[in-house]
Amino acid sequence: MLHYSITPSDLHAHLFSVSLEISEPASDGVQLTLPAWIPGSYMIRDFARNVVDLRAEANGQPLKVTSVDKQTWQLAATDGPVTVHYQVYAFDLSVRSAYLDQYFGFFNNSSLCLAVQGQADRSCTLAISLPDTETPWQLATGMPRQSGDQFGSGVFTAGSYEELIDYPVLMGQLAIQEFIAGGLKHGLVVAGHHYGDLGRISGDLAQICEYQIDLFDHQVPFESYLFLTIVVGKGFGGLEHRNSTALLCSRKDLILPGKQTIDNDYRGFLSLCSHEYFHSWNIKTLKPREFIPYRLAAEQYTRQLWFYEGITSYFDDYVLHQCGLIDAATYLQLVGDTIARVQRSTGANRQTVTDSSLYAWTKFYKQDENSPNSIVSYYAKGGLIALCLDLLLRRDSDHQVTLGTVMRDYWLEYGATGKGTEDESFASFVEQKYSVKLAAFLERALYSTDPLPLNELLSEFGVELSHEVAADDNTIGGKPASNNIPVALGAKYKASPQGLELQTVYNGEAAERAGLSAQDRIIAIDRLQVTEQSVKEVFDRYQPDQQVTVHAFRRDELLSLKLVWDKPRANNRVLRVKRPEQLKGWLNPKR
Ligand SMILES: [Zn+2]
To answer: Residues 105-126: what's their mean pLDDT?
Structure first.
């Protein structure tokens, strides 16, 4: 038996105290480890670096602990039960690790609970205490409860270590709004200072959940579900779990009472919720065979993240449209944003989406100023591949089969059974089950950097995709631009009163040809100062191919360079419904 106890012991020092009782330690001594990463976020994070002051005891006596490596401890052999005590420093305000202060606490058990080697398959119990605060705290988690009142402290159970670390916990003065979707209990739980209309939000969430439950034909891999939400001034993130999701959002993302229209911020929050909820099927149960089981001590590679993140990204906004939360024009603008983002990066010509998946650990999760020149996002391009798949399936099955239909059947075959998927499973499944041939399309889409057949497919569904000039180097997307500046710098920049700080310099374009690099700060063009205030006025003076003198700082060194302006490129991707009768149920033009 394994029993963990977690106490938020020092809110000001951001410390959780943890104890672990091991009733049957291995005869040659217990080995303890903490994961290096958390499923769903493919980066080595070395959670053990936050463990402080680890001690062990047996029979009332201290037991010798030897540190083995960055995340492993070896306890001396003993015959009786062993108890381990340690603290964990928790001040990472993200959904991936742990956080604690006097206002709220959040943790993943992968940051707090040591795994006992050889006992990962055993069930365990976890007692969680709440701190002694002036206004009482509550706690919310999807972990099955053994004792204690709903949202109070108590004892929880998990069937294995992998299950234990899939139940994040949120604590504090929580705002809780429960709702029913698909006949199942759901809850929106919010920690942090917020002004959101939780009644309205949970109503919108109920529609999203209901739609997805219907899409999977009421085969639901959980009995209840929680949206555990941390609200901050500025933040964004989500991590999927088996019967909950941990979300981080900005205060302005939660719609205010009395507001009717769904603005971009709130739409983004609903998309995030829709995305993480869809993952309950697509990665939490249907998953790459390489992830069965997870091995959390080091990187675990797969070429399939494009499928799990791409298809999920496709459905997140698509479900919003199908629920009537966003109209067809808004939906198409979001698709245009994604196409523009993928096609703007020269990295899309240099990395395949399967390689992007494989190198998630070192490239996608460790992006730098050169990433747009060297990598493609498996989320964004994966989402566009999913769009193509949906349209191809509809077209080639005479509108009988959709990507939604396939996901339901595929989930039953490879997810509900626990089989897991291999690189080629999807194409062969679709061909066998529906006689739709996808192999040739997928071969090109996944293993080459050839452009996707977006124009052709969208056009067959009555939608025209046009390449249009963007307003400036910074604003590209799916929205038609007005007031374009006449020249292009070929760099993304952040304008401030101090100048233009270059964030990305695109290969082969004006800024790079002139010798400018990311992080350079342009302070003057033709010896006149350029700032946030004057940038448009300055750029408006010039014509493509004209040469100017640029002064910029690189670190503390002043550069004087000759720059020849580029012609503005058609970087926007604008989608318009031209022949609504051809949409055939893919989109609803009346919404
Ligand atoms: Zn995701």
So the answer is: 98
Q: 530: CA distance to ligand 1 center in Å? A: 40
Q: Give bridge partners of residue 171 from the DSSP assignment.
A: 105, 139
Token pair, residue 81, equals 């039960």
Q: How far is the CA of 244 from the centre of ligand 1 (A)?
A: 13
What distance, in Å, lies between the first and last C-alpha atoms of the chain? 55
Quote the ligand 1 centre to 120 CA distance (angstroms): 26
CA of 26 to the centre of ligand 1 (A): 38
Buried b (16+ CB within 10 A) or exposed e, 438-460: beebbeebbeebeebbbeebbeb
CA of 343 to the centre of ligand 1 (A): 21
pLDDT of residue 124: 98
Exposed (0-12), middle (13-18) or buried (19+): which is 350, by Cβ within 10 Å?
Answer: middle
State how far the Cα of 452 lies from the Cα of 386, in Å rounded to an integer.
11
Q: Would you say residue 483 has pLDDT above 90? A: no
Which residues are in the CB-under-5-Å shell of ion ligand 1?
309
pLDDT at 589: 82
* pLDDT above 90: residue 591: no
Contact (Cβ atoms closer than 8 angstroms) between residue 311 and residue 283: no
Tokens 């292009």 found at:
488
Domains and CATH numbers, the chain: 2-173 (2.60.40.3650), 491-564 (2.30.42.10)
ipTM of the complex: 1.00
504 Cα–ligand 1 center, Å: 25
Q: What is the 3-state secondary structure (H, E, C) of 72-139?
A: EEEECCCCCCEEEEEEEECECCCCCCEEECCCEEEECHHHHCCEECCCCCCCEEEEECCCCCCCCCEE
Is 142:224 a contact under the CB 8 Å cutoff? yes
Neighbours of 186 (CB within 10 A): 23
Q: What is the distance between the alpha carbons of residues 488 and 480, in angstroms, rounded to a whole number?
A: 17
